[in-house]
Amino acid sequence: MRFEDGGNNVESYYKRVCIDHKQISQLIPIKDAQSNNGITELNKAIVAWGPTKSTSRSPVVIVDNNTGFNTTTDTVDGEHPNTKGDLKLAEKFFQPLVDAIKAVS
């Protein structure tokens, strides 16, 4: 995926991985400033796009994995999560997953 494609990438991502999953994650930041600018733009596109696919029967939840994620302390190399980063991601996904399970139980 290219960051420049913005919304088109979001739609493609949704079609590939969200057949039954309705939690869409914003991307985590990375240390490279130029690439991180693209991530910021794509995350904005995700937030704008999510409500256009959400329905009362099939809500789309945007999980903000970007806010509070620190590339220095939460990654092994400025890009890939370490154990602390993995735990942060899991914590952010936990409640939306619990809510989704309750909704179909």
Give a short synopsis of this structure:
This protein has helices at residues 7-17, 33-53, 83-104, and strands at 23-25, 61-63.
Major sheet summary line: 2 strands, parallel
Per CATH, the architecture is: 3-Layer(aba) Sandwich
Q: Number of helix segments?
A: 3
Uncertain stretches = none
Q: Which percent range describes the beta-strand content? A: 5-15%
Order of helices and strands: HEHEH
Q: Within the largest sheet, what's the order of strands?
A: 1-2
Helix content: 40-55%
Kindly give the count of domains. Answer: 1
**Span between N and C termini?**
35 Å
| CATH class annotation | Alpha Beta
Number of strands: 2
Average pLDDT score: 85
CATH superfamily: SGNH hydrolase
CATH fold node name: Rossmann fold
Query: Which structural class matches the secondary elements?
Result: mainly alpha
Shape: flat
Our Rg estimate from Cα atoms comes to 14 Å
